[in-house]
Design a protein that fits this description.
Order of helices and strands: EEHHHHEHEHEHEHEHEH
Strand content: 15-25%
Helix content: 40-55%
Radius of gyration: 17 Å
Distance between the termini: 15 Å
Number of helices: 10
CATH topology of the largest domain: Rossmann fold
Largest sheet: 6 strands, parallel
Strand order of the largest sheet: 5-4-1-6-7-8
Shape: globular
CATH architecture of the largest domain: 3-Layer(aba) Sandwich
Number of domains: 2
Number of strands: 8
Length: about 230
């Protein structure tokens, strides 16, 4: 039997494939300034550190800070129109979350996406799934890889951080887990590759959502989910 008693999930690239809606929204902003668009694949390495960082990475290097700030506001408007168009759960995620709920395993979300979008997407795409806590980017909490939100979630779960698994698809998530004193699971269906996850000390790496369940209950990804 595993020692894990709670799980914290990243959102983008872990629970949800948000790439198309984010890419399309940023490209709308870039087009409004006459800047060249980026491919969806290029956005894989830009996502994960919040909206401002995303726009800063996507605009030309010599872009004035005031233009970046204006671009962020334009992005928020564009993303508000687009964020539910193509975003969807990865295959096997809904079944995983239902299975965890049915087993009484507390689950939570910690994202650098703005808190309102994080909550709206979870309600829209995971109706009936119970989350113990949902922390998007919000005032008073530092963004990942700062462990502040992860530790607050563990506290709300009434668990020691060592009893909590942290699941994500990027180095930001792996570093967050380390900073919080939690074991981490790196997922291979997200926005980053296996090398990045292993180079940042992922405790486990899984190819399918089933592996998360197996680790949570048996401490190994090798068993089958029932």
């Amino acid at each position: 039997m595993s020692r894990y008693k709670g799980i914290i999930f990243d959102l983008d690239g872990t629970l949800l494939d948000t790439l198309s809606d984010i890419a399309n929204s940023v490209n709308e902003v870039l087009a409004s300034y006459g800047y060249p668009a980026h491919s969806k694949e290029e956005y894989r390495i830009k996502i994960g550190k919040g909206f401002r960082n995303l726009l800063e990475q996507s605009m030309p290097e010599d872009t004035e800070p005031a233009v970046i700030e204006e671009g962020v506001e334009k992005f928020i408007k564009a993303y508000h129109e687009n964020y539910k168009k193509e975003t969807k759960p990865y295959g096997g995620i809904v079944s995983l979350l239902k299975a965890l709920n049915n087993k009484g395993m507390p689950i939570a979300v910690n994202s650098n996406k703005r808190n309102d979008y994080t909550n709206n997407l979870l309600r829209y795409l995971f109706p009936g799934i119970v989350f113990s806590a949902i922390y998007g980017e919000r005032p008073g909490f530092a963004k990942k890889p700062d462990p502040q939100a992860a530790l607050e979630i563990a506290k709300q779960m009434q668990l020691d951080p060592k009893e909590v698994l942290y699941v994500g698809d990027s180095k930001t998530d792996m570093i967050t887990a380390q900073n919080a004193g939690m074991d981490s699971i790196g997922v291979l269906w997200g926005f980053r590759d296996e090398r990045e996850l292993r180079n940042h000390n992922a405790t486990y790496v899984v190819k399918r959502p089933q592996g998360i369940y197996n680790i949570a209950f048996w401490g190994s990804a090798a068993n089958s989910m029932e």
